[in-house]
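WARN no homologs supplied; continuing
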Amino acid sequence: MRRPRLAVLTVAAALALTGCGGGSDSGGGTAAGKLEGNGPITFVTGKDTSGYVQKQVDAWNKLHPDERADVIELPESADAQRQEMVKNAVAKSDTYSVLNLDVVWTAEFAANGWVEQLNEADFPLDKMLAPTVETGKYFGRLYAVPITSDGGLLYYRKDLLAAAGVTAPPTTWADLRAACTKVRAANPKIGCFAGQFDKYEGLTVNFSEAVNSAGGTVVKDGKPTVDTPAARKGLDFLVNGFTQGYIPRNALTFKEEEGRRAFQAGQLLFHRQWPYQYAKANATDGSSEVAGKFAVAPLPGLDGPGQSTLGGHNYAISRFTQNKKTALEFIQFMAGEERQRANLQATSQAPTWGSLYDDPALVEQYPYLPVLKESILKAEKRPEAVQYNDVSVAIQSAAYSALKGDKTSEQALAELQAKLETLIGK
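OK structure emitted
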């Protein structure tokens, strides 16, 4: 499977490395300092759609009654979460202690001096999948610890495929369309395929996956590369999905949860989604119409298996919090194998400990684990840019205009190429 590079070295990042733009609050120090202060802390995270975050924190609080962690829950949208965290950091507020960061925020938060540099020896990084560890680093220094990872998976209705005589999940986009045609002969109202296509971070992920799965790249060797035939093939797969009807029109409003609810309601044959959906879709409490009726496979691509974008969340310590030693110990607790195992069993989220993917008992309970491990190990990172939010917004705007039909793929990608060149550098 192809592994095109997406790493981005921005001018701003280069300045941060050489110390030209940082001052006392910039990232890029030569060594992690000693973290001091014990006492109550806060744990700041996005909306808990799993229902398990508080139980994880309760496990800490039970053992540390004098160093309690209080959960501060932010909105469900990743973009809104980042906005609140940035606002707190710019104000140098001590309200936030431990931050649950999307993996793509590391460079921005480290370069701006909003999170503390960490000592690698304080964490079991050698037990974790290597790609997840790299997401917590900025210029080779650790600023965040991987707690959950994420790889894109193709959820599919195995019962409907079998009934239509389709014996295996699709490995190419053509296979996906052909399987959909067969299933729709008996189920004309079912949506063929959906992902995360609303104008937010999820669209950046889905766009990147489509481009990479067509043999293209978004950025290569530090330069934007979206105005290419391969990138157009990737975007065209999504655009044609809407114009030809194999992607439902309402999927333009889908983030993770909207798509999950549609799949669980039996409205989708195929769904590109993260592993957290597995437990919810298999729930036997009446909340899912597809429990026991679906399976998981690698994402399909143009000529063979596709390529996931690497997701996940890392924990970091705010530069402005008071009780940093407690914050460090809280992260160590949550990064341990016991807590990661408990989280996997409760939520089906991807752990970062490699051993959990090979545990026979867990694989029996969660058959998707081998597929997920391969997805993560071969996943492509999104651009590592200090101005990542601007880069992502540019990608979202271009892709969304094409999906809506306001611009052709060729027009959207040409404009995106020009925009990224101003943000990333030539």
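The mean pLDDT is 92.
OK
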